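Researcher: Go.
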Amino acid sequence: MPALQSELFEFVPPALAGLRYAPGFITADEERQLVGEFEMLPFKPFEFHGHLGNRWVASFGWRYDYGQRAVRPAGPIPSFLLPLRGRATAFAGLPEEEFQQVLVTHYPPGAGIGWHRDKAIFGEVIGLSFLTPCALRFRRAYERGWERFTQMVEPRSIYLLQGAARTEWEHSIAPTPSVRYSVTFRRISASR
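Model: Structure:
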């Protein structure tokens, strides 16, 4: 019997090596408090090579400058994010002091992120999601098409990208129907 065309061009792995996910990482009360803090941050439109994205960002510690293709100093990490960073790096089993880049992102309704892989200057990536669930999609090319994997990311959850999930797979976030926030902690390479 001939294989279905979709079977020839797409393989969905049962699990993605290097992705670790945990729902319910923070409480609903913690989420409300953090979102109140997020709403007061100095967000700017996401800018990528002269184009403005459909989301708003606030970078702390370091920020990636797409024009210069380098990390640049950003404002200090707000004190309200430091306990969250400590908990997030404990979840990941990684040294807190090495996660010096923090990105808080505001996604208005209908916003997402296209396919990408975080810049090589960054190591492991820890993300936390707030208010609205989203589909965190992964893909990587293989000899006949794309391998694909989707992790549904619930509000108040955490995920870690390391190993193959971080270096071999691209990821994207599907547009969400309502406002969503995320906090991303990235390890910076010592060779910056």
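Model: The chain has four helices and 14 strands.
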